[in-house]
Amino acid sequence: MRRRRGGVGLLGVAAVAGVAHHAGTKSAQAQAQEQAQNQEIADLQAQQAAAPPAYAPPAAPAAPAAPAAAPATDLTSQIEQLAALHTAGVLSDEEFAAGKAKLLGG
């Protein structure tokens, strides 16, 4: 009597090989499709870089002129705001000093 050897057998090997072939083919197709998309994106970016802009945004409006003389209470409140920002840690010592000097005009 012949005894069968334990194992997958010819049909099992063929099935595994078929699945592996199918997976490899799909992977190659996906890579080819991704490369084609990357090339299209690169081509579009090159076209956009070479073409002049179709729309130029309007220039920013000029800043309004500062009021001539502000009342003293306004100056005090602005310095107090700077001090509060400095105390909260938003402004450094240098930024606080520069802001105060700017408000005081010097």
Structural description of this entry:
With 106 residues, the protein is mainly α. It folds into two domains: 9-51; 72-104, no CATH class. It has helices at 9-50, 72-88, 93-104. The N and C termini lie far apart (111 Å). The mean pLDDT is 77.
Mean of residue pLDDT values? 77
Query: H/E series, N to C?
Result: HHH
- Which structural class best describes the helix and strand composition? mainly alpha
Tally of structural domains: 2
Query: Main beta sheet: strand number and arrangement?
Result: none
Q: Strand tally, please?
A: 0
Tell me the overall shape: elongated
Termini Cα gap: 111 Å
Poorly predicted regions: none
Percent strand equals under 5%
Radius of gyration: 37 Å
Percent helix, as a range, is: 55-70%
Number of helices: 3
Question: Would you summarize the structure shown here?
Answer:
With 106 residues, the chain is mainly alpha-helical.
